[in-house]
């Protein structure tokens, strides 16, 4: 049967994790909160709303809903300003190669992202056509490590969970894939992503034979 290869977006397909970090850091600074790259690891894969709550908790700040909404808009505007000139050059090394190979082998490709900005990013980078299904932050109500986003993607593709392979750069995303009984592949630091079934520093370290081995 066909396999579903489910890709997270930020930090897996495109290097937007650095832009999310910059935008959150700017806000944290304005609020007088110390926000380090280590703190940022906890925000990877986490929704915008929940990310703000985590940052505010770091600074012991209790805020009104009105202020929170204002900051959420501000963060997203800053984030989007980094994406204005985005094009295919922002696709992370090795990713296109893998997407093309999966297509060539007539397997299925899905996006499983917490981001509400996913579609425009896929369009800007010119890879929207690779995806047989897209599930993003506009479609789900439970954030990773809840497996909802990946379960939906597999469902849309009519593929059972055991036949789904998930590529993730976040701890929360790896946990979500594991909870869903999918095959978790960590992309990034193996120490941080130690719960992943497999791990690659990035896609250039992944041999196409690794992908082929899942296909029957
Ligand atoms: C991804 C990123 C997070 C981001 C979240 C929401 O999971 O890893 O850093 O906060 O998506 O993204 P959005 O584009 O909707 O703010
Ligand atoms: Mg990610």
From TrEMBL:
Q: A GO molecular-function term, please?
A: beta-phosphoglucomutase activity
Q: What is its EC number?
A: 5.4.2.6
Task: Return the Pfam families for the record.
Answer: Hydrolase
User: Reaction catalysed by this chain?
Assistant: beta-D-glucose 1-phosphate = beta-D-glucose 6-phosphate
The top EC class is isomerase
The family database entries (InterPro entries) matched by this protein are listed as:
B-phosphoglucomutase_hydrolase, Beta-PGM, Beta-PGM-like, HAD-like_sf, HAD-SF_hydro_IA, HAD_sf, PGP-like_dom2
The record's keywords, sorted A to Z, are: Carbohydrate metabolism, Isomerase, Magnesium, Metal-binding, Phosphoprotein
Cofactor(s) the protein requires to work:
Mg(2+)
UniProt family annotation: Belongs to the HAD-like hydrolase superfamily. CbbY/CbbZ/Gph/YieH family.
- Write the protein's name: Beta-phosphoglucomutase
Lineage of the species this protein comes from: Bacteria, Pseudomonadati, Bacteroidota, Flavobacteriia, Flavobacteriales
| Gene behind the chain | pgmB
